[in-house]
Amino acid sequence: MLETPEELFRALVEDHGAHPRHAQALDPADARADGHNPMCGDRVALTLRYAEAAPTTIADCACRTRGCAICTASASILAGLVRGKEKAAADALFTAFRDACVSGEPLAETPMLDAEEREVLEALTIIHASPLRVKCVTLPWHTLHAALTGATEKQHDLKVGPAREASA
C-alpha cells in the first residue's frame, strides 16, 4: 500500500510511463487534436469516439505520446478516466485538473469520479510543486479540451491544434 501522494505519483509515472494504456489511434474517430509543448518537446495526439446511441458520451479515447514519462503517464490515465463520461463532464474534469496542477489547491469537486479515480488524479496534481513539469502533466488534458471544444489552447504556452472532424 502506498502511503503518500508522492509515492503514488512516482508509482503512477513509473507504471503508466513505461506501459501506457490506450496508446493507439482510434480509427475511425469522431474528434482529434494534437498537442505540443515546445519547451520540452512533448507531443500528444488524442482521438475520441462517441457512443453511437449517446453522441455526447465518450465511448473511447486514445492518446499517442512522444515525450517524458510524466506526459505519457498523464495521457494514459486521462484516456482511461474519460471513457464513459459525458463530454461536458470530461471538460469539467480538464478544468478542475488543470486548476489544481497550476494552483496547488485541492482538486475541485469531481462527482464524475469514483474515490479511486479521484485519488489517482489528485496524486498527479502534486506536480504543482515543480512548475516546469506542470506543462508535462497538463498537455494531454489541454489536448482533450481542444478535441472536445474545437478550441486552440494558448495557456501555459502550449501549442494545441484545434479538434478536427475525423474523416468517415
Automatic annotation (TrEMBL):
Domain NIF system FeS cluster assembly NifU N-terminal, first and last residues per copy: 13-92
Listed CDD domains: IscU_like
Source taxon at top rank: Bacteria
GO molecular function: iron ion binding; iron-sulfur cluster binding
PANTHER family: IRON-SULFUR CLUSTER ASSEMBLY ENZYME NIFU HOMOLOG
Gene Ontology biological-process annotations: iron-sulfur cluster assembly
Stretches of the chain forming a coiled coil according to its record: none
Protein name, as recorded: Putative iron-sulfur cluster assembly scaffold protein for SUF system, SufE2
Source organism (scientific name): Caenispirillum salinarum AK4
